[in-house]
Amino acid sequence: MPQKILRRTELAEKIKQDIYLKELRQGDRIGSIRRLAMRYHTTPLTVNRTLNDLVEEQILYRDENGCCRIMNSPPAKPHLGYAGEPILPSGTLDYLMQDAVRKLFSELDKLDALPQIIGYHELRNPEAAMERLKDINGLIVHDSFMDDNTSEVLNKLKIPIVRIGQTLPKYSVFSSSEVVQFFDPALKEFAGYCDLKSYRRIMIVHTIHWNSAKLAKEIRHFLHNCRLDNCVEMVALDNGSWNNAEFQAFCHFQKPENAVPDDTLIISLSGYFSRGICRALAGKGELPDILSIDNLDSYEKCTFFGEPYLTAIDRNMGRIFREAARLIYEQVKSGDERKVIVKIPARLVIRKSIRHINPNWSEK
User: Fold this and answer.
1) What would the pLDDT profile of 279-317 be if each residue is shown by its tens digit?
2) What are the E-state strand segments in the chain?
3) Contact, 318 vs 298, CB < 8 A?
4) Where are the alpha helices (DSSP H) in 126-266?
5) Residue 345 per-residue DSSP state
6) pTM above 0.85, yes or no
7) 191 and 352 in contact (C-beta within 8 Å)?
8) Residues 121, 270: Cα–Cα separation, whole Å
9) pLDDT tens digits, residue range 192-212?
10) β-strand 347-349 against 177-182: which pairing, if any?
Protein backbone atom coordinates (compact mmCIF):
# COMPACT_ATOMS: atom_id res chain seq x y z
CA MET A 1 0.00 0.00 0.00
CA PRO A 2 1.45 3.44 -0.95
CA GLN A 3 2.58 5.50 2.04
CA LYS A 4 0.12 8.35 1.33
CA ILE A 5 -2.88 5.98 1.25
CA LEU A 6 -1.66 4.31 4.45
CA ARG A 7 -1.52 7.70 6.21
CA ARG A 8 -5.06 8.50 5.05
CA THR A 9 -6.32 5.11 6.25
CA GLU A 10 -4.77 5.65 9.68
CA LEU A 11 -6.16 9.20 9.83
CA ALA A 12 -9.64 7.97 8.86
CA GLU A 13 -9.58 5.48 11.77
CA LYS A 14 -8.53 8.22 14.20
CA ILE A 15 -11.36 10.47 13.02
CA LYS A 16 -13.92 7.66 13.35
CA GLN A 17 -12.65 6.90 16.86
CA ASP A 18 -12.95 10.57 17.84
CA ILE A 19 -16.50 10.68 16.48
CA TYR A 20 -17.31 7.80 18.86
CA LEU A 21 -15.41 9.18 21.86
CA LYS A 22 -16.91 12.67 21.49
CA GLU A 23 -20.33 11.08 20.99
CA LEU A 24 -21.04 13.20 17.91
CA ARG A 25 -24.52 12.55 16.53
CA GLN A 26 -26.18 12.65 13.13
CA GLY A 27 -25.84 16.09 11.54
CA ASP A 28 -23.04 17.31 13.84
CA ARG A 29 -20.22 19.17 12.09
CA ILE A 30 -16.85 17.41 12.05
CA GLY A 31 -14.77 20.61 12.15
CA SER A 32 -12.84 22.74 9.66
CA ILE A 33 -10.05 21.27 7.55
CA ARG A 34 -7.54 23.68 9.13
CA ARG A 35 -8.46 22.66 12.69
CA LEU A 36 -8.38 18.99 11.81
CA ALA A 37 -4.95 19.37 10.18
CA MET A 38 -3.63 21.02 13.34
CA ARG A 39 -5.24 18.40 15.57
CA TYR A 40 -3.83 15.43 13.69
CA HIS A 41 -0.47 17.03 12.81
CA THR A 42 -0.87 16.63 9.06
CA THR A 43 -1.55 18.75 5.98
CA PRO A 44 -4.91 20.24 4.97
CA LEU A 45 -4.65 18.34 1.66
CA THR A 46 -4.34 14.98 3.49
CA VAL A 47 -7.28 15.90 5.74
CA ASN A 48 -9.46 16.90 2.78
CA ARG A 49 -8.72 13.66 0.91
CA THR A 50 -9.41 11.64 4.06
CA LEU A 51 -12.75 13.40 4.54
CA ASN A 52 -13.64 12.55 0.94
CA ASP A 53 -12.83 8.90 1.75
CA LEU A 54 -15.20 9.05 4.73
CA VAL A 55 -17.91 10.60 2.55
CA GLU A 56 -17.54 7.65 0.17
CA GLU A 57 -17.85 5.29 3.17
CA GLN A 58 -21.04 7.19 4.12
CA ILE A 59 -19.59 8.05 7.51
CA LEU A 60 -19.81 11.75 6.60
CA TYR A 61 -21.70 13.91 4.12
CA ARG A 62 -21.12 17.45 2.83
CA ASP A 63 -23.82 20.07 3.39
CA GLU A 64 -24.73 22.87 0.98
CA ASN A 65 -21.75 24.89 2.24
CA GLY A 66 -19.31 22.03 1.68
CA CYS A 67 -18.88 21.36 5.42
CA CYS A 68 -18.54 17.72 6.51
CA ARG A 69 -21.18 16.43 8.92
CA ILE A 70 -22.00 13.06 10.54
CA MET A 71 -24.11 10.89 8.22
CA ASN A 72 -25.51 8.54 10.92
CA SER A 73 -25.19 8.52 14.67
CA PRO A 74 -22.41 6.09 15.68
CA PRO A 75 -23.01 3.35 18.28
CA ALA A 76 -23.73 4.76 21.73
CA LYS A 77 -20.77 5.01 24.07
CA PRO A 78 -21.62 2.94 27.15
CA HIS A 79 -22.22 4.98 30.30
CA LEU A 80 -22.82 2.21 32.78
CA GLY A 81 -24.00 1.85 36.33
CA TYR A 82 -23.34 -0.97 38.81
CA ALA A 83 -25.93 -1.58 41.52
CA GLY A 84 -24.47 -4.16 43.87
CA GLU A 85 -22.09 -4.54 46.76
CA PRO A 86 -18.94 -2.48 46.02
CA ILE A 87 -15.43 -3.26 47.23
CA LEU A 88 -14.86 -1.20 50.36
CA PRO A 89 -11.59 -0.62 52.30
CA SER A 90 -13.30 -1.78 55.50
CA GLY A 91 -13.49 -5.34 54.19
CA THR A 92 -17.26 -5.57 54.70
CA LEU A 93 -17.63 -7.78 51.62
CA ASP A 94 -16.75 -11.47 51.68
CA TYR A 95 -13.68 -12.56 49.77
CA LEU A 96 -15.55 -14.53 47.11
CA MET A 97 -17.69 -11.53 46.19
CA GLN A 98 -14.69 -9.17 46.34
CA ASP A 99 -12.94 -11.31 43.74
CA ALA A 100 -16.01 -11.31 41.49
CA VAL A 101 -16.53 -7.53 41.71
CA ARG A 102 -12.84 -6.94 40.95
CA LYS A 103 -13.21 -9.08 37.81
CA LEU A 104 -16.26 -7.03 36.78
CA PHE A 105 -14.42 -3.72 37.19
CA SER A 106 -11.29 -5.11 35.50
CA GLU A 107 -13.30 -6.24 32.48
CA LEU A 108 -15.06 -2.88 32.16
CA ASP A 109 -11.73 -1.09 32.57
CA LYS A 110 -10.39 -3.01 29.56
CA LEU A 111 -13.44 -1.80 27.63
CA ASP A 112 -12.91 1.80 28.84
CA ALA A 113 -16.35 1.75 30.47
CA LEU A 114 -15.88 1.93 34.24
CA PRO A 115 -19.32 2.16 35.86
CA GLN A 116 -20.83 4.59 38.31
CA ILE A 117 -21.63 2.93 41.64
CA ILE A 118 -25.37 3.07 42.38
CA GLY A 119 -26.36 2.75 46.04
CA TYR A 120 -29.21 0.56 47.24
CA HIS A 121 -30.98 3.57 48.78
CA GLU A 122 -30.92 5.33 45.40
CA LEU A 123 -32.82 2.48 43.75
CA ARG A 124 -35.52 2.43 46.43
CA ASN A 125 -36.70 5.97 45.67
CA PRO A 126 -38.13 6.52 42.15
CA GLU A 127 -37.27 10.23 42.02
CA ALA A 128 -33.74 9.73 43.33
CA ALA A 129 -33.20 6.80 40.97
CA MET A 130 -34.29 8.72 37.87
CA GLU A 131 -32.04 11.64 38.78
CA ARG A 132 -29.07 9.37 39.52
CA LEU A 133 -29.51 7.31 36.37
CA LYS A 134 -30.36 10.08 33.91
CA ASP A 135 -26.91 9.99 32.28
CA ILE A 136 -26.59 6.18 32.36
CA ASN A 137 -27.52 4.08 29.33
CA GLY A 138 -26.84 0.62 30.78
CA LEU A 139 -27.13 -0.91 34.27
CA ILE A 140 -25.76 -4.05 35.97
CA VAL A 141 -27.81 -5.13 39.01
CA HIS A 142 -26.81 -7.80 41.53
CA ASP A 143 -29.45 -9.92 43.25
CA SER A 144 -28.48 -8.49 46.63
CA PHE A 145 -30.14 -5.21 45.58
CA MET A 146 -33.37 -6.83 44.42
CA ASP A 147 -36.60 -6.45 46.39
CA ASP A 148 -40.16 -5.19 45.83
CA ASN A 149 -39.15 -1.50 45.94
CA THR A 150 -36.11 -1.67 43.67
CA SER A 151 -37.77 -3.95 41.11
CA GLU A 152 -40.62 -1.45 40.77
CA VAL A 153 -38.12 1.34 40.04
CA LEU A 154 -36.08 -0.80 37.61
CA ASN A 155 -39.22 -1.66 35.69
CA LYS A 156 -39.60 2.02 34.76
CA LEU A 157 -36.12 2.37 33.25
CA LYS A 158 -35.86 2.40 29.47
CA ILE A 159 -32.24 1.26 29.30
CA PRO A 160 -30.59 -2.15 28.96
CA ILE A 161 -30.34 -3.93 32.32
CA VAL A 162 -28.30 -7.04 33.06
CA ARG A 163 -29.14 -8.87 36.27
CA ILE A 164 -26.45 -10.98 37.98
CA GLY A 165 -27.60 -13.76 40.25
CA GLN A 166 -29.06 -17.20 40.65
CA THR A 167 -31.49 -19.18 38.56
CA LEU A 168 -35.25 -18.88 39.10
CA PRO A 169 -35.29 -15.19 40.13
CA LYS A 170 -38.14 -13.95 42.28
CA TYR A 171 -37.89 -10.37 41.09
CA SER A 172 -38.15 -10.70 37.32
CA VAL A 173 -41.17 -8.50 36.65
CA PHE A 174 -38.95 -6.00 34.85
CA SER A 175 -37.54 -6.88 31.45
CA SER A 176 -33.83 -7.53 31.73
CA SER A 177 -31.09 -9.72 30.42
CA GLU A 178 -29.66 -12.15 32.97
CA VAL A 179 -26.33 -13.82 33.69
CA VAL A 180 -27.18 -16.53 36.19
CA GLN A 181 -25.75 -19.55 37.92
CA PHE A 182 -26.61 -22.99 36.56
CA PHE A 183 -26.22 -25.75 39.14
CA ASP A 184 -27.54 -28.83 37.32
CA PRO A 185 -24.22 -30.04 35.82
CA ALA A 186 -22.38 -29.79 39.16
CA LEU A 187 -25.24 -31.44 41.07
CA LYS A 188 -25.35 -34.31 38.57
CA GLU A 189 -21.59 -34.75 38.87
CA PHE A 190 -21.89 -34.77 42.66
CA ALA A 191 -24.66 -37.41 42.48
CA GLY A 192 -22.28 -39.57 40.44
CA TYR A 193 -19.36 -39.00 42.83
CA CYS A 194 -21.20 -39.35 46.13
CA ASP A 195 -23.13 -42.43 47.30
CA LEU A 196 -26.32 -40.46 48.11
CA LYS A 197 -28.37 -43.54 48.98
CA SER A 198 -25.99 -44.39 51.84
CA TYR A 199 -27.25 -41.46 53.94
CA ARG A 200 -30.16 -41.80 56.33
CA ARG A 201 -30.48 -38.02 56.53
CA ILE A 202 -29.72 -35.17 54.10
CA MET A 203 -29.92 -31.66 55.57
CA ILE A 204 -30.15 -28.56 53.35
CA VAL A 205 -29.00 -25.55 55.40
CA HIS A 206 -30.00 -22.18 53.93
CA THR A 207 -30.99 -18.64 54.90
CA ILE A 208 -34.50 -17.22 54.83
CA HIS A 209 -33.47 -14.73 52.13
CA TRP A 210 -35.46 -15.30 48.93
CA ASN A 211 -32.55 -16.29 46.67
CA SER A 212 -31.15 -18.78 49.18
CA ALA A 213 -34.61 -20.26 49.76
CA LYS A 214 -35.12 -20.68 46.02
CA LEU A 215 -31.77 -22.41 45.61
CA ALA A 216 -32.68 -24.71 48.52
CA LYS A 217 -35.90 -25.65 46.72
CA GLU A 218 -33.95 -26.27 43.53
CA ILE A 219 -31.61 -28.66 45.36
CA ARG A 220 -34.55 -30.35 47.07
CA HIS A 221 -36.17 -30.88 43.67
CA PHE A 222 -32.93 -32.43 42.43
CA LEU A 223 -32.91 -34.83 45.42
CA HIS A 224 -36.57 -35.60 44.73
CA ASN A 225 -35.57 -36.72 41.23
CA CYS A 226 -32.96 -38.95 42.91
CA ARG A 227 -35.83 -40.50 44.96
CA LEU A 228 -34.47 -39.26 48.26
CA ASP A 229 -37.50 -37.35 49.60
CA ASN A 230 -37.82 -39.44 52.76
CA CYS A 231 -34.44 -38.39 54.17
CA VAL A 232 -34.37 -34.68 53.20
CA GLU A 233 -34.65 -32.04 55.92
CA MET A 234 -34.69 -28.25 55.37
CA VAL A 235 -32.93 -26.07 57.96
CA ALA A 236 -33.47 -22.30 57.59
CA LEU A 237 -31.15 -19.97 59.53
CA ASP A 238 -31.71 -16.22 59.78
CA ASN A 239 -28.09 -15.17 59.31
CA GLY A 240 -28.86 -11.48 58.67
CA SER A 241 -25.62 -10.91 56.77
CA TRP A 242 -22.63 -12.94 55.61
CA ASN A 243 -20.35 -11.73 58.40
CA ASN A 244 -22.36 -13.39 61.19
CA ALA A 245 -23.39 -16.49 59.21
CA GLU A 246 -20.59 -18.61 60.68
CA PHE A 247 -21.63 -17.66 64.22
CA GLN A 248 -25.32 -18.37 63.55
CA ALA A 249 -24.54 -21.82 62.17
CA PHE A 250 -22.20 -22.53 65.08
CA CYS A 251 -24.89 -21.61 67.63
CA HIS A 252 -27.55 -23.70 65.92
CA PHE A 253 -25.48 -26.89 65.65
CA GLN A 254 -23.99 -26.53 69.15
CA LYS A 255 -27.41 -27.20 70.70
CA PRO A 256 -27.81 -30.80 71.95
CA GLU A 257 -31.18 -31.13 70.21
CA ASN A 258 -29.47 -30.42 66.86
CA ALA A 259 -27.03 -33.31 67.04
CA VAL A 260 -26.04 -34.73 63.65
CA PRO A 261 -25.46 -38.50 63.18
CA ASP A 262 -22.43 -39.67 61.20
CA ASP A 263 -24.62 -41.07 58.40
CA THR A 264 -25.79 -37.53 57.50
CA LEU A 265 -25.01 -35.37 54.50
CA ILE A 266 -25.19 -31.62 55.12
CA ILE A 267 -25.61 -29.44 52.03
CA SER A 268 -24.74 -25.93 53.19
CA LEU A 269 -25.71 -22.99 50.98
CA SER A 270 -23.02 -20.74 52.45
CA GLY A 271 -19.31 -21.25 52.90
CA TYR A 272 -19.61 -19.42 56.21
CA PHE A 273 -22.42 -21.73 57.35
CA SER A 274 -20.13 -24.64 56.45
CA ARG A 275 -17.35 -23.30 58.67
CA GLY A 276 -19.72 -22.68 61.57
CA ILE A 277 -21.09 -26.22 61.25
CA CYS A 278 -17.58 -27.67 61.30
CA ARG A 279 -16.62 -25.68 64.41
CA ALA A 280 -19.78 -26.75 66.23
CA LEU A 281 -19.59 -30.45 65.40
CA ALA A 282 -15.83 -31.09 65.45
CA GLY A 283 -15.77 -31.47 69.23
CA LYS A 284 -18.63 -33.97 69.21
CA GLY A 285 -16.86 -36.67 67.26
CA GLU A 286 -16.28 -37.26 63.57
CA LEU A 287 -17.72 -34.63 61.25
CA PRO A 288 -20.60 -35.61 58.98
CA ASP A 289 -20.18 -35.35 55.24
CA ILE A 290 -20.55 -31.74 54.04
CA LEU A 291 -21.14 -30.26 50.60
CA SER A 292 -20.66 -26.48 50.58
CA ILE A 293 -22.41 -24.40 47.93
CA ASP A 294 -19.57 -21.89 47.89
CA ASN A 295 -15.95 -22.60 47.08
CA LEU A 296 -14.89 -20.21 49.82
CA ASP A 297 -11.73 -22.18 50.63
CA SER A 298 -10.22 -21.08 47.32
CA TYR A 299 -10.70 -17.38 48.16
CA GLU A 300 -10.28 -17.05 51.93
CA LYS A 301 -7.95 -19.16 54.06
CA CYS A 302 -9.70 -20.93 56.90
CA THR A 303 -7.79 -21.19 60.18
CA PHE A 304 -9.95 -24.11 61.33
CA PHE A 305 -8.43 -26.54 58.81
CA GLY A 306 -4.76 -26.65 57.87
CA GLU A 307 -5.70 -27.01 54.18
CA PRO A 308 -8.83 -26.65 52.04
CA TYR A 309 -11.22 -29.30 53.35
CA LEU A 310 -14.76 -28.70 52.10
CA THR A 311 -16.03 -30.37 48.96
CA ALA A 312 -17.79 -27.51 47.23
CA ILE A 313 -19.84 -26.38 44.29
CA ASP A 314 -18.08 -23.28 43.02
CA ARG A 315 -20.66 -20.75 41.83
CA ASN A 316 -18.19 -19.43 39.24
CA MET A 317 -19.00 -15.86 40.33
CA GLY A 318 -15.92 -14.34 38.69
CA ARG A 319 -16.97 -15.64 35.28
CA ILE A 320 -20.58 -14.54 35.87
CA PHE A 321 -19.47 -10.97 36.60
CA ARG A 322 -17.12 -10.88 33.58
CA GLU A 323 -19.87 -12.15 31.27
CA ALA A 324 -22.26 -9.53 32.64
CA ALA A 325 -19.72 -6.78 31.90
CA ARG A 326 -19.29 -7.92 28.30
CA LEU A 327 -23.02 -8.37 27.76
CA ILE A 328 -24.10 -4.92 28.99
CA TYR A 329 -21.26 -3.27 27.04
CA GLU A 330 -22.25 -4.95 23.77
CA GLN A 331 -25.97 -4.33 24.29
CA VAL A 332 -25.49 -0.60 24.84
CA LYS A 333 -22.96 -0.19 22.05
CA SER A 334 -25.01 -2.13 19.50
CA GLY A 335 -28.43 -0.86 20.57
CA ASP A 336 -29.58 -4.47 20.81
CA GLU A 337 -32.79 -4.52 22.88
CA ARG A 338 -33.23 -8.30 22.90
CA LYS A 339 -33.31 -9.92 26.33
CA VAL A 340 -30.62 -12.55 26.76
CA ILE A 341 -30.25 -15.23 29.43
CA VAL A 342 -26.70 -16.53 29.89
CA LYS A 343 -26.32 -19.58 32.15
CA ILE A 344 -22.88 -20.09 33.67
CA PRO A 345 -22.39 -23.66 34.93
CA ALA A 346 -21.15 -24.10 38.48
CA ARG A 347 -18.37 -26.64 38.98
CA LEU A 348 -17.74 -29.36 41.52
CA VAL A 349 -14.55 -29.11 43.61
CA ILE A 350 -13.76 -32.43 45.30
CA ARG A 351 -12.04 -32.38 48.70
CA LYS A 352 -11.99 -34.46 51.90
CA SER A 353 -15.37 -33.56 53.44
CA ILE A 354 -17.20 -36.30 51.51
CA ARG A 355 -16.34 -39.85 52.56
CA HIS A 356 -19.35 -41.76 51.18
CA ILE A 357 -18.03 -42.13 47.65
CA ASN A 358 -19.91 -44.01 44.94
CA PRO A 359 -17.85 -47.19 44.28
CA ASN A 360 -18.73 -46.92 40.57
CA TRP A 361 -17.46 -43.35 40.25
CA SER A 362 -14.44 -42.67 38.10
CA GLU A 363 -12.87 -39.26 37.50
CA LYS A 364 -13.12 -38.10 33.91
Assistant:
1) 999 877 778 999 999 888 888 776 677 788 999 999 999
2) 60-62, 68-70, 80-83, 116-117, 138-142, 161-165, 177-182, 201-207, 232-237, 264-268, 289-292, 311-314, 341-345, 347-349
3) no
4) 126-132, 148-154, 184-193, 210-225, 245-254
5) E
6) no
7) no
8) 26
9) 999 999 999 999 999 887 778
10) unpaired
